[in-house]
Structures are given as C-alpha cells and as structure tokens.
Amino acid sequence: WNATSLSVVVVGASGDLAKKKIFPALFALFYEGLLPPEFHVFGFARSKLTDAEFRDVIASTLSCRISAREKCQEKQEEFLRRCFYSPGNYDSAVSFQELNRRMGEVEAASGKQRANRMFFLSIPPNVFIAAAGGAADHCSTKTGWTRVIVEKPFGRDSASSAALGRGLAAHLREDQIYRIDHYLGKELIENLTVLRFSNLVFEPLWSRQYIRNVQIVFSEDFGTEGRGGYFDQYGIMRDVIQNHLLQILALFAMEPPVSLAAEDIRNEKVKVLRSMRAVQLDDTVLGQYRSRRHGGRTLPGYLDDKTVPPGSLTPTFAACAMFINNARWDGVPFLLKAGKALHTRRAEIRVQFRHVPGNLYKHKFGPDLDSATNELVIRIQPKEAIYLKVNNKVPGLGLRLDTTRLDLQYQSAFNQKELPDAYERLLLDVVNGDKRLFIRADELEAAWELFTPLLHEIESRKIAPELYPYGSRGPVGAHYLAAKYNVRWGDLA
Ligand code: BG6
C-alpha cells in the first residue's frame, strides 16, 4: 500500500445505488482507516457536474454510524476533498480517455509510483459492455491492478447472461471481474459457514436425515414505488430469487469445502447448484400486489405505478419448491419465497427438523406434532438473530410442555449498535482481491439454468400472477404449494 494509490471509479455516479450504497460504504471504509492513504474517488456519468457539484451530491449521502461520531465532520470533509468528477458517455472512447487523463493527474499528484484502479459499474444493462470496454481499454492502470465490479441484472436468462459474459470477457480477464450479490456481504450470510463448520452441534444434523424442509424467505413491506420501469423487465424471480435466495441456498446446502479459499468455496457452490433440478411450473406460485384501502388511504397496486406498463403480468411475489438431487438432500424441499408490498420487511432462513422418533412426550403435543419439532431460524434482517426452538417443561408442578427459544440476538449479544453494510465488506474484499463472496462465471451459469426454462414458460404462456392486497401475506397459492410438500411456512407466527 505504501507505494500504491487507489482510485475507485463509480461509473453511473448519479444513480440511486451509488448514492444510497456505494458512496456511504466508501466513506465508512475510509473513516475506519481501511483504505490506502492515497485513495481517491472518481464519479463518471452523463450529467455535467463540476467537482464541487459532485462533492455536494456525495455530501448529502454521507452519515456516520452512531458509534463513530468522533471527528465525523472532519473526516467527511477530508473524504470529499478526495472526490473528483468526470462527465461522459458510457459508449464514448473520448470520455474514458478524459477520465483516464484526470485520474492520471490526481494519482501523479499523490506522489505514489503505482496506482490500483477499481471500477464499479452501476449502470443500466444496455450500456454495460460499452462501459466495461471503455474502462478496460482506456483506463487500465499500467502500474497496478485494474478490477471491475459488476452487479445484476446479469442478463435475463441463460443466453443473455452468456452473451454479457462474452462481452465482458472481450475486455477483461475473469480474475479482474467481481460479480456482486450484495446478500453475500450481509453479516448473517457470512456467518452461515462459520455456524455450520465451526460448531459441532449443527453440521451432523445438516442433512435429509434430520431436516424436514428449509425455507428461505424474503419480504418487503413496500412496493416498487417508481422503480417499476426497471423491475417490470425482470420481476421478482430474477430480482431476488435467482440470485440472493439461491446464493443463500447454495451456501446453506453445499458440502464442506476443502478450505476457505475462494475457489474451494465456489467449487462447492457450483456443485450443489448443478445437483439441483430446474424449477418446475407446478412447483411455483406467482403473485402481483393490488391496491388496498388502509387507514383512510389507498395503498397503490403494482399497476398503479406510473413506470409500470399497463396490464403487466410481471410477478412481484413468487414462491417455489426446489430440490437437490444428492445424497445429503434427496427429497428435502427447499422452499424459496420473495415478495414486495407484503405485511413486513424480513429476510430469514428457517430450518424445520424432523419429528423425534418414538417421542415419549408425543401425547403432550396433541395432534399437531409438526408445530413441536425443532426449528432453527437465522434472521438475516432486520434485527439479526439466530434462534432455535426447543421444547421444555413449563416450570411448576405437573407436566406441561412448551416450545421456547434458545435465542441469540445480535445487537445485544455483540453490543454493536450497527453492523457494517454489505457493500462495505464487499468493496473492501475487492480492494484486497478476495473473491470468496463474489459469483464465478460457472456459478452464474448454473444459477440461470435452474430458472431459465421456467421463466420462458411463464412468459410464453403469459401466466397471470395471483393478485394479493398490498400489505398482506401474499397469495394463498403459497400455502397450497407448501402443503403439497407437507410443509407449513414458519414465518406466520
Ligand atoms: C436488490 C433488489 O437486489 O435487493 C431490490 O433489486 C431489493 O428489489 C433489494 O429491494 C433488497 O436489498 P436489501 O439489502 O435492502 O434487503
């Protein structure tokens, strides 16, 4: 680091993701002293801003964590002084050459001999390859590494994703490409492998022998709200299930890797994805939220969003049952569910264990033995937690049983007011060249293969989603799907 400067270029610097996530994450890393002393940020986008105007934009996005207020103002000012802006078009060689010139100037002024450069492409898919080409061909550093971060959508199906991959490969080597799935940067997902592989009590139970089903659930209590233009082209399957939830599934279900090295972990993820059966239409439920009167006002339906084309059939909710055809998981349903405009915001993994064989206390639970089985819940957000539902005797004379929790609440257990944002971890990993939490090309391919036939069938047959009211628990179809596999969603309590 001592002899090397770091330039981070945000391509698409005036976009939503940049403002909400990337700049705040860069600032947090800077604040914590985790970036090299000669570190600079370059914004690149079409709007014609000066450096000063760009700094104003960034300033409005920065805040300090509750626990880190000390010298916050001072640090923000220092951070802003390191921010520069270069306007341009994503498909223009001249614009990237100009960006390269400005970066060269700033890097030279830092007095370091070498420069590393990292690009975050936070731009619409239609300009993706052009911008990757511009960055790689005109802005690669000659004295250090050049890395490019890309984020979904990685195409719409297997074929378009492969085409995108070829486009990127024409300009960049695989080791330069960092495919982000920000769910992998979340604390509880990082912890998943630790939980499995550094405790004796979980891994031996991690199989069809003891696990009845696994549920991976994502819900948001808000709709697309103006983001419908983007969302409508993709729908919830591509937006959340094929990437975020499937990634969680892969980490959850993979075999123990040979080591913690990126390639070893990703080899196992690919293996488990390739052991899975592509999702079937009759194992899928689709929904779309409609408007609802609530507390004297109308909550708008998906089709009321002005950015959504009239009559759109795009699902805002989907649930599907998936299966892994290997010795460990044969026959265990993995139920994935994701929806917008539901009653709550939550992401969690629920592991429902089998019944106790020959349970001596069976008679105490009445006919509903399912509700008395152990359940492990990993709550990814909000209020990160891990808890295990166990049966106990209610204290007192007589014998009454009840299900209670062994409960680990992150905030109180670790005395941390706020956990780092996923983007902080992931950006730092790129700086350090750590690819453990990034998606490899063959992994992406395997993920698309599981969903592409289904997505094509839904679209060609114009399958209409089931409507559900804004703020509800989603379409009833999800319960029938679960019932088909003898499963009860665990997130209803
Ligand atoms: C994004 C999706 O990848 O993840 C959004 O495109 C979704 O539709 C978001 O809202 C959820 O992320 P988080 O971190 O807020 O749960």
Report on the structure:
There is one protein chain. The chain has helices at 16-31, 51-59, 72-81, 93-109, 128-139, 158-169, 187-197, 228-253, 262-274, 410-414, 422-432, 441-460, 477-484, and strands at residues 4-11, 39-45, 83-87, 114-121, 146-151, 177-180, 211-219, 284-290, 292-294, 297-299, 317-322, 334-339, 346-353, 375-381, 385-393, 401-409, 466-469. With 493 residues, it is α/β, with parallel strands linked by helices. A nine-stranded mixed sheet has the order 16-15-14-13-7-12-11-8-17, sandwiched between helices. A six-stranded parallel sheet has the order 3-2-1-4-5-6, sandwiched between helices. A two-stranded antiparallel sheet has the order 9-10. Strand 9 and strand 10 form a beta hairpin. Helix 1 (16-31) packs across helix 11 (422-432), helix 6 runs antiparallel to helix 12 (441-460) and helix 9 (262-274) packs parallel to helix 12. The radius of gyration is 24 Å and the shape is globular. The termini are far apart. The model has no long low-confidence stretch (mean pLDDT 94). Bound molecules: 6-O-phosphono-beta-D-glucopyranose (BG6). Residues 182, 220, 239-240, 347 line the site of 6-O-phosphono-beta-D-glucopyranose. Residues 9-191 form the Glucose-6-phosphate dehydrogenase NAD-binding domain. One of its GO terms (biological process) is pentose-phosphate shunt, oxidative branch. Its EC number is 1.1.1.49. This is Glucose-6-phosphate 1-dehydrogenase.
